Amino acid sequence: MDQDMKDSMMGALETVIDPELGIDIVNLGLIYDVLLSEDGFAVVTMTLTSMGCPMGPQIVQMVKTALYELPEVEEVDVKIVWQPVWGKEHMSRYAKMALGVR
């Protein structure tokens, strides 16, 4: 998978807003990896802000919806992982500023 495709996938994922924090999941640092096979099978490795995140299923559905907008994507598998543990150090400067995190 080339960098342009990875950038396209990350761009699509920037449209997915965490309902609780109001910031997109890319800037929050929730996306750990994106892959796309030759036959259009996308795998997203991501985490959530907390294990008990009530919005988990909704966020997973939004991730799938966003990636299906890309013509290259035929199928999407979202893998939720808890390692490494998410923390504010994963957030972009933009997300930290928006949420007032230092």
UniProtKB/TrEMBL annotation:
Q: Name one Pfam family in it.
A: FeS_assembly_P
**Any idea where the MIP18 family-like domain is?**
9-78
Q: Which organism is it from?
A: Planococcus versutus
> What PANTHER family does this protein map onto?
FE-S PROTEIN MATURATION AUXILIARY FACTOR YITW (PTHR42831)
Highest taxon of source: Bacteria
The UniProt record lists the keyword Methyltransferase: yes
Supply one GO BP term: methylation
The entry's protein name is DNA methyltransferase
Taxonomic placement: Bacteria, Bacillati, Bacillota, Bacilli, Bacillales
UniProt keyword terms in alphabetical order: Methyltransferase, Transferase
Per the record's keyword annotation, is Transferase included, yes or no? yes
Q: Under the GO molecular function aspect, what terms does this record hold?
A: methyltransferase activity
